């Protein structure tokens, strides 16, 4: 699959000397949903700002659908829609006027039918004549999405799109994202709701301290880095683990009523048979056994926990 965004050796150092991006290389495939994860200050918003032409890089190169975002800014920016974190809109404009103006900014001819359908998809049609200042925070977020899509971009950036919004908007937004993807729009999102990335994204990139730590298919990442846990409900609670079991990856949970065994899901041998045999040898009796895999959130925390 061809790359719609190509990032090569991207660097950004701000005037105060802070280096926000450190040699980032990344290719985003046409038509995919790509999630960029990282803690606050990791470089996510700076990376998006560079690609969208808001932040000027100090090194490297970025192509958006073949257009250099610095040398061919206008052509590159026409391909991109951006939904920023901040609720920044013209408070005294109506919804219809601000969305129509956003389309005109990119030199697109009027298309009231498209804008009408866009507002309907975002549950904004009934508010089209309302001033932005009269809308709730959730409705203002919907307006930002409408503005980003008004010029029919091929690439859409969603920077923390569901932060602080209600469940209904979040559900509508992901339904809309699914529809955009079906039309071939490439979607790049940052989010603190890691379960959204796990459910929606084709691939995930993890960034920290300005460096891209990894890029991987979501399912492959879960398979490679995920661990499994076996939880054994004990018949009698334990205060401490028997010394003879100290060499095993075991911990007590639930006030000593549950024994948790963690193992590598990709290993040839899980060690479960050995575990059960040694528990029997030590006279540790258990009833129910349940297993679970690591969540993406746990994997993410492990990846960014290490210092720079």
TrEMBL record:
The keyword Secreted does not apply. Keywords: ATP-binding, Nucleotide-binding, Transport. The lineage of its organism: Bacteria, Pseudomonadati, Pseudomonadota, Gammaproteobacteria, Lysobacterales. SUPFAM superfamilies: P-loop containing nucleoside triphosphate hydrolases. Residues 5-234 form the ABC transporter domain. The keyword ATP-binding applies. InterPro entries: AAA+_ATPase, ABC_transporter-like_ATP-bd, ABC_transporter-like_CS, ABC_transporter_ATP-binding, P-loop_NTPase. This is ABC transporter ATP-binding protein. PANTHER family: ABC TRANSPORTER ATP-BINDING PROTEIN (PTHR42711). One of its GO terms (molecular function) is ATP hydrolysis activity. It holds the Pfam family ABC_tran.
